[in-house]
Design brief:
mainly beta, disordered N terminus, elongated
Amino acid sequence: MTDGGSQEPTSRRRLLKVLGTTGASLPLAGCPSPSAPDSETRQTPSRETTERPTTGGVSTETARTSVSESRQRRAIRGSGRTVNDELELLLADGVEVYFPPGRYVLDPISLRGNDWSLVGENATLVVPGDVTGPYLDVDGSNWTIDGFTIDLTADGAAPVNHLKGTDWTLKDVEFVGQMDDPGRRKNSWLLFPAVTERDGRGLVENVTAMDGSADPGQSSNRGLTWFGQNNVGTLVWRECRFSKWANNTLYGANSAGRLVIEDCLFENTNVGVRVGGDTVVRGCTWLQTGRVPVQRWSGDANARGLWINSNQYMPGAVTIEDCAFVMTGPTATRAITSNHEVEDVTVRNTTVVQGNDFSAVDLPGNGSTRIQQTTITGDSRAPAIALARRDGSTIETSCIQQPGDGIRISHSENCAVRNSTVNVDGAPFDFRDATVRTRNVTRRGRCRQHSFSQGG
């Protein structure tokens, strides 16, 4: 090991506009506007394709938000006990149904077709208390649900929403109130999204569910979302905020398609985020700093960060960049981990504050690991980074400062640690049956301390 100058990583902290809006509610009005037009033709503005470039020569992730389209606009009047009959009468292919400001009781409904949208303006959909199964059952191509508060506060309300098809969008939606818990575990998630064609795409954008399914210390079998082999296309979660979910939060470990998670907040929520291979996680924040709800069927409270291949090996590389993990709550565990082999993993420009004597990054084999411009601090006494059977791994321009050990690499060949700081009270390196080259590594530097209070 050769001592050299400390190179402090410049971790770009999008601590998120989402932090500034945590818990915010969409404004509500008392009734629909009687002056709303029955029908008009609306030209939906074209939104250009945007590219989110990554650093380090990694290919860009194209984020197509919508296409230019012309839909006939029809307005809900909301004159009946529920709006189901009126909505089914108005909605058709090529139609946008507009909900003026107000509250609308909506019973379970099945919506099918192509090129349609539901658009709310300060509009609330009220879920009746007897709904404990399918609620919004949506399928088709190029559909959009945009701009609603969904009220779950009725006693007994526990809706399950199926969002299926291709090139669909769910955006600007806030779920208010905790889901009731019917006691069963199966089919107990709030959202079941699926992109049903390999070249298709689904977008979940600015969706908020901060009330979760139970208060910290209480239990529930309700989780936020699950998607698996039925999701074969690209599913994007962008600028979402989730908290207090008891039975998993974002569960996509067995997804057959590509997964992109951008600029999302996961705060004091059980089990965290479960992904498979072929995943990009960018600009996200985990604030696992307090108590979380308990998974009722197992009795577990485990505030994980990002859990890769939790159930089985799923192929594909994983990229984690511009993220922050604060894992200091009483049940917080590892920031980034895997239960099964995982292919190439890149952790770039990321900050971890790790507690509870867990490793911040703990990955088994089948691919290389690249950790770049990443800071790991906290009070953990476990190795900050633990890699096993990960040939060709590199740790560079990064900083580790904690009371425990530094870097453990085992059963791995052709690895390197360079241009980094490893300032620990324990062993800086533990290389077991591994070949690791170290260059320009200092034990005297200090890592930048970050503040992650609400509001950034």
